[in-house]
Amino acid sequence: MSKILELLKDYRTISIIGMAKNVGKTTVLNYILSKARGKYTLGLTSIGRDGEEYDQVAFFPKPRIYIAKGSYIATAKEALLNSDITKEIVATTGFDTPMGEIVIAKALSDGYVDLAGPSINSEMAKVCNLLLKLGCDKAIIDGALSRKTQASPSVSEATILATGAALSYDMEETIRKTAFTVKLLSIEAEKDKEILKLAQNILDNSRLGFIYKDKRYKTIELPTAIDSSKEIVENLEGATHVVIKGVVSDKLIEDVMRGTDKYKGVAFLAEDSTKLFLQEETFLKFQKGGGILKVLKPVNLVCVTINPVSSLNYQYDKKEFLERLKREISIPVFDVMGGD
Amino acid sequence: MINIKFLTEKEREQIGFNYIMARLQVITPYGKEEMKNVKPFKREEKEKVIKEYDYIELMRGSLEKDKELFYKILKILFKIKDIRNSVKKCKTGEILDEVELYEIKIFCLLSEELRTFIERLKVDIEDIKLKSVKPILDLLDPQKKRIATFHIYDEYSQRLKEIREKKREIERQIFLETEKEKIEKLKEKRLEIVVLEQQEELEVKKRISKELFSYISILEANIKAIGRFDFLMAKTKLSMEYGGIKPKINEDLEINFTNVINPQVSDILKAQGKKFTPISLKIKNGTTVITGANMGGKTVALKTITLNLLLGIMGFFVFAEEASFPIVDFIHFVSEDLQSVSRGLSSFGAEVIKLKEIIEDVKKGSGFIALDEIARGTNPEEGLYIVKAISKYLNSFPSITLLATHYDGVVEENMIHYQVVGLKNVDFEMLKQKISMNRSNSIEILQEYMDYNLERVDSFYEVPKDALNICRILSLEEEVIKLAEKYYEKEE
Questions:
Q1: Distance CA B394, CA B417 (A)
Q2: Which residues of A touch B (CB under 8 A)?
Q3: Prediction ipTM score
Q4: A111: which chain B residues are within 8 Å (Cβ-Cβ)?
Q5: Could you tell me the pTM of the whole model?
Q6: Rounded CA Rg of chain B
Q7: Is the pLDDT of residue B216 over 60?
Q8: What's the CATH number of domain B9-133+215-238, 1.10.1660, 2.40.50, 1.10.1420, 1.10.3470?
């Protein structure tokens, strides 16, 4: 794991996302914090949490985040006042959360902090910028349960995925699910500059659009693209690309496949891979049927961390877990418990 | 709450008042509060409304002289946040937390900056003068660094300083320790110190909050002054954007407007590449009747007069070349949306209820009443009688009634009469030919030639035949026109 910092050295905004609860996100974060001490000034925040704190598994103390003097945090006021660092208030943001306004504070001492940042991506991007502007070398976004929006390239330049035994009793399943998430997150980006430009035009004005062979494009007025299979089926003739704003769901892809076979060879473009909410089965079916799934902006997944211990009193064979996952995915894998 | 003596929310929307409010570039929460509470001045407040006009004039002069200074002021205004909740908390004796103290400190830093800038404006406006907040800054900035951050400084308490030194020492030990067990022990010890630190910080916050309470009137005065300044500046900029002028306040019940416009309608027309025809009129107590064919802009004229009068008595500049009016006790505007005209009797019923309200008001005070095509939903004969009765009745009260109707024969000798010029001066043959060449745009062409000016009509006047002329121009069946002409002859 000592190489993590090395992997992150070129990035200014870094997000940590987790496959499930208790897969060691906080351990990873604390590790980075301890290694960065004296090297970087860090700014910390987290994506708004969904009550994670309140339904955590009993008897399994959740690790808290311990930061170094001189670090900055962006967190809701209530969470800030729960933090035991000596705190200097440096800015307020005007972004409100159920736990109060997001406030930026500098740690005048070491200590434990409670992070509850904004839950809207655009606000998160602004908060990170503010942290960097205030003098942080890097802004790190801690993840919340079941959320990966902070990995969006519009928010963070690099992403760490945490996984572990907490995901499933069955190591096989954990490995398969993790490998698929990695595959989905690092899905291929569209490279044709002309297509990218047309797609951006479409996204600027609407939620669904089609690019045709002769590079004409057309947009469809919709309140959301999530149930737009009918419109996709109707306009697919002659299209080379379908541009979809927002979430791409199983239902959407399956409805398209049921409605037409014209999707063969057509590239479906999502904004970025955090917008893909697809089961492995759907994804494979779509690919086998000749469909192509791409994104406009790639997520930069730099590594996967694993926690072989589950809070439910079982654990995997550390070495086997690490080795097998390494075989399945092509990016670095680190064990958060062990030395490597 | 809107005082409905000065139009309901819906009526304010209709005349374009809400449009104006939305165009006001109020920046701070305090300016927004001022804007929300804006209301017409009362008759006995003549001096006050005139003072308000003077303020706008002063601001405008100074703004035109030094735009850069205003730009700097604007930048400060954008940074000002709402501290009213903290002020309220402080006043009820609650303890303010670090974030609230931080916000008050920032407010004070900005307030000081703003104070010097406003002084540099050299305008003699008492309301916008800020008080010095130095004692508050000294309290919240014991290190006197005047930096825009805040924490519970060591300077507040020797005890706190000592606790924190201990805390730092233990944290240093934790950092250097490698054995997990020892780290846990040290962290437990640290926790004990953290508790002490928080207790002492609370004591300090209690003390600061209490001391702050003694300066609270300074904060409140500056909040008010910033709100006033922000709102005045917004009014000033609005007047510059739409060519507003300083009106005169009449003692008599007389309203004079020269080339007055309605910014909302004007902006809509501009977007269509058309121009608003400014309106001029001079009316007094009693009933004034505006006649003219449909499409003639009577409704716009009523909206424009009502809007500018309302703005004027609220202390805004008005959008005209010249204007004078009295401070009125009430303003009514009755105009049915075209959509609801088809509802016929039910909309007429609503009008009657409104008229009852108006009659109650004219008995008690002096106001302004704009009536747009009332009784339009009834049959024409009855409609005419009712309009005649209303205009005659209102004519005798010390209020100013402006009534638009397309009925003829409403005007009596002792009433003022304006007429939309309409198509009166147009070369019909030319227009007819133009339209015949471009039938699909006939209505637009017609509108283009329609003269929306109001002209004062003497007691003897010829009934305008705009309706008939429109039929001719749009080539209605020849025979129908001939039949109509016969009826016109009979009437005369």
A1: 15
A2: 37, 69, 77, 80-81, 84, 86-90, 92, 94, 101, 103, 106, 108-111
A3: 0.83
A4: 171, 194
A5: 0.84
A6: 33
A7: yes
A8: 1.10.1420
